Amino acid sequence: MTPEEFKKIGEAHQKKRESFNYNINVCTAAACVSLQSEKVKEELIKQVKEQNKKDDCRVSGTGCLGLCASGPLITINKNKALYGGVKPEDAPEIVKNIAKKPVKRLQIPTDMPFFARQTKMALEHCGKTDPEVIGDYLAKEGYEALYNCLTTMEPNEVIDMMVKSGLRGRGGGGYPVGLKWSTVHKAVGFKKFVICNADEGDPGAFMDRSMLESDPHSIIEGMAIGAYAVGASHGYVYIRGEYPLAIKRLRAAIRQAERQNFLGKNICGTPFSFDVEIRLGAGAFVCGEETALIASIEGKRGTPRPRPPYPAQFGLWGHPTLINNVETFANISPIVRKGADYYASIGTERSKGTKVFALAGSINNTGLIEVPMGITLREIVFEIGGGIVGGKKFKAVQTGGPSGGCIPEEYLDMKVDYESLAQVGSIMGSGGMIVMDETSCMVDVAKYFMDFCRSESCGKCAPCRVGTAQMYNLLNLISQGKATMHDLALLEELCDVVRNTSLCGLGQTSANPVLSTIRFFRDEYLAHINDKKCPAGVCAIEHKEEAVL
Amino acid sequence: MSSSVKIKTLTIDERQVGARENQTILEVARENGIKIPTLCYLKGLSPYGGCRMCIVEIAGSPKLLPSCMTTVEEGMVVSTNSDRIKKYRKNLLELYFSERNHVCSVCASNGYCELQSMAQKVEMSHVHFPYMYPHLDVDATHERYVLDHNRCIACTRCVRVCDEIEGAHTLDIKDRGIEVRIITDLDRPWGESETCTQCGKCVHVCPTGALIERGKSVGEMSKRKQLLPYLTKMREAHE
Fold first, then answer.
1. Dihedral sign, CA of A38, A42, A44, A45?
2. In chain A, what residues touch B133 (CB-CB under 8 Å)?
3. A84: which of A122, A282, A475, B138 lies 20 to 30 Å off by Cα?
4. Residue-range definition of the domain harbouring residue A33
């Protein structure tokens, strides 16, 4: 297909959109769907018909609008209204008032910091296009980046562009993307693979899911560009089975892309061929670790193996393999379109660009945000996030899931980038951010994450298999008020052993939630141990009368 | 040996040694009489990298790497027995002992157990992590062998030997984390297994008393350590 042809498709879609005075977009990402947004959409379509506004209004689905706390969300293009908490029974009123003033009681101001403070790169199409229609994506310069790479750039130039952009892996490790791509490019092999890691498993994280549900084509395009740069001909998306909607949309998107020849043989008439297959995860957190993920795709038990050799040299079935996270691939086409320099101009010295975060926990504006690197935690929590629910006192923010740590109030003005977060004993991680208020007990939080690691450990190496179980037992004792100072010392010793001797990232980082809570909230641990009290009143501590002898 | 094999030189415990490329640190160390303890590694089987006993320090790398799966590099400086590693090895052994019911005095492998002798070697005087005392089954349905989960350290030597050497793949692992168990066929009693060839290789590669011959009493189950090296040698000669 020539660029003229696919531009034409895009323009046709755009024209069709513009031929209606009012485009009503209903969010159909999982959070809103769970609040009956599909029903809202049906009802709106019905009302448009009944009120004879069929030539005037069009109702379509769209990707995630971000503010999941106020779902289901709908937008109307003409009067730029954003409605939240829409119920199916609100449909008649919305359609009736479409040419008049917006419905006040449902309206959400679009100039609030939640929207104004964001910088969209990876999420640029989320909430603006219908994820199930390729024409919508093409109307937004979709697949142009791929076409330009294939026709005007050498693989080396694409890699150079990634190096210049300063993009780092968004899966958590923060490994430079350009460096990884050039390693795979240079690796010798008659066959190479590209894998998109969509096995998002951190509690409270939903960035990858939302991106796949809202803009699946941008991930396919990113993968295809990556494949061209490293010389791969086959790709896999390893997506967790718990994301049925994302799987459905991705499947549909792959089919559409194949039909329009953005995937398959001789893409866009060039010698480059690339196809993508989906592999479903079966509920193992450890399969997000790249070597375990590869084992799982190969049909083996999903357990990690020691690195080196890295997948870049010895990956899927022994072939050089490029593995990147969903968000990383979503950033590729914006970088190619807008230029590496533009991307590198956002962010801090060593962490460039933007980062998507999933806000969860005790925060008013739970949802999906994308912010420039270097923004402070305070801005994220109190401006974008709208502060703590019920005006309670902020206690900590947990980043990086079970591999991360809890960051207390005194570090709220810290800049968010890979290095700063590591300095305070947490990690960037994939972007989950759980905000906790004064009613959270930090021992209980550490216990929760250790329980998660314990049950998700694959059991291959002894320190993770036994160590996490031992740590969980000790945390359990502390939370029950049955522990002594000796147990706390033992816990700290175990943290050190497990962190240094475990095989893969799961074990090596499993101690982080414990270490960071001990570091910043030691007094809470001491209160549980010495005073047999839970300051937040979360842990059930049995008070036994001391035996009188 | 073809002349195209490259030779690398490296330092292990302050000793200059030479190695063929693609050799692991563990192989080179053992060739040179440097002892590195192992539990899951067994010459003749594919490396596993799970027991973590063979971890070594490599200058310039913050991470401890398993020597059984790390290939040599030119100019590498390896330390196999630093105080830090000794401490971790001792801690790891304590974790093994705390995990299941390793009661030597009533174990058929008492005196012949690799876990036991390693504890003596690293001078593990006691276990300072709490014992977990799990309730575990013993599968004594097989007419010749017994699988005692109480003694298993999940090193998977038996799984690998059954798959790679015997080719039966009767044994495998189920579940994950602290719940991992060795299973026969699709988690059926061993005695009902249709794939087991009764060869007994699993018993003789098992480092502990988890796999024993039926009828062996306390301290009677010595393992034929030479079985696997012999088989491997004969195979190599045959090829």
1. positive
2. none
3. A122
4. 3-110
pLDDT at A5: 83
DSSP strand pairing (B145-148 vs B211-213): antiparallel
A–B interface: beta-carbon pairs under 8 A: 99
Task: Please state, in angstroms and rounded to a whole number, the distance separating the CA atoms of residues A148 and A270.
Answer: 11
- Which among B70, B95, B173 has CB closest to A466? B95
The answer, yes or no, to whether ipTM is higher than 0.85 is: yes
Q: Which CATH number fits domain B7-81: 3.10.490.10, 3.10.20.740, 1.10.3720.10, 2.60.34.10?
A: 3.10.20.740
Contacts of B82 (CB under 8 A, 6+ apart): B57
Number of domains in chain A: 4
Radius of gyration of chain B (CA): 19
Report the alpha-carbon angle A339-A156-A320, nearest 5.
Answer: 115
List the single best residue of B21, B48, B52, B131 to mutate versus A (max A Cβ within 10 A). B52
**Residue bearing the bigger pLDDT, A308 or B148:** B148
- A403 falls within a domain: yes
Distance CA B141, CA B138 (A): 9
Does 3.30.70.20 match the CATH number of domain B99-238? yes
Flag residues of chain A having pLDDT under 50: none
Identify the domain boundary among A328, A345, A362.
A345
Helix axes A442-456, A522-530, angle to 10 degrees: 90
Both A495 and A390 in one domain: the answer is no
pLDDT band with cut points at 50, 70 and 90 for residue B235: confident
pLDDT for the residue B20:
95
* pLDDT tens-digit readout, B199-209: 999 999 999 99
The string of pLDDT tens digits covering residues B58-90 is: 999 989 999 999 999 999 999 999 999 999 999
> Which chain A residues touch B64 with a CB distance below 8 Å?
500-501
Cβ of A493 within 8 Å of Cβ of B96? The answer is: no
Unique residue bearing structure tokens 């960035």? A207
- Contacting residues of A for B129, CB less than 8 Å apart: 470, 490, 494
Determine the distance in angstroms separating the CA of B50 from the nearest CA of chain A, rounded to an integer.
4
The answer to whether the bond into A308 is cis (omega within 30° of 0) is yes
One-letter amino acid identity for B215?
G
Half-sphere exposure of A516 (CA within 13 A, CB side): 30
* DSSP label of A381: I
Distance from CA of A469 to the nearest CA of B (A): 7
Distance from CA of B111 to the nearest CA of A (A): 23
Q: What is the pTM of this model?
A: 0.94
pLDDT of B114 strictly over 80: yes
For residue B91, list chain A residues with Cβ-Cβ distance below 8 A. Answer: 493, 497, 501
Task: Report the residue from A454, A474, A500 with minimal CB separation from B64.
Answer: A500
Q: Which residues of B37-53 are buried (b: 16+ CB within 10 A; e: fewer)?
A: bbbbbbebbebbbbbbb
Closest partner residue to B129 (CB to CB) among A460, A490, A500 is: A490
**B125: helix, strand or coil:** coil
Q: Would you state the pLDDT for residue A416?
A: 93
Are A409 and A445 in contact, with CB atoms under 8 Å apart?
no
Q: Do A493 and B88 touch (CB under 8 A)?
A: no
| Measured distance CA(B170)–CA(B163) in Å, rounded | 7
Q: What is the pLDDT of residue A171?
A: 87
Cα distance from A491 to chain B (closest Cα, Å)? 9
- Res. B2 pLDDT band, cuts 50 70 90: low
SS percent in chain B: helix, strand, coil, step 5: 30, 15, 55
Give yes or no for B101 touching A (CB within 8 A).
no
Contact A536, A441 (CB under 8 A): yes
Q: Is residue A153 domain-shared with residue A251, that is, in the same domain?
A: yes
Point out the residue among A458, A493, A502 whose CB comes nearest to the CB of B176: A458
